[in-house]
Amino acid sequence: MFDERVLRCFLEKQGQLFREDVASTPEEAEEFLEDCMAVVADSAQDVAAYFEEEGVDTGGCGDILEAAEVFDVGDGRYLIVEG
Questions:
Q1: Of 12, 23, 41, 61, which residue is 20 to 30 A from 33 by alpha carbon distance?
Q2: Range of the domain at 21
């Protein structure tokens, strides 16, 4: 479900959302992301639409792309992980 680039991104940046690592291998990362129903958004607009659809008020948090739950994959996509 998650490609190598997304898994590597999560493994490298998981500290922005969690105090301790929740995964140490790509397999553990994929299992964790599947368990928490993480989503890959294809653009910044898709990230905003996701949060709007989920009913999350983002009005007071500034740039939604800087939220701890949003991981910049580096290729225009964003991984959204609800912690």
A1: 61
A2: 4-80
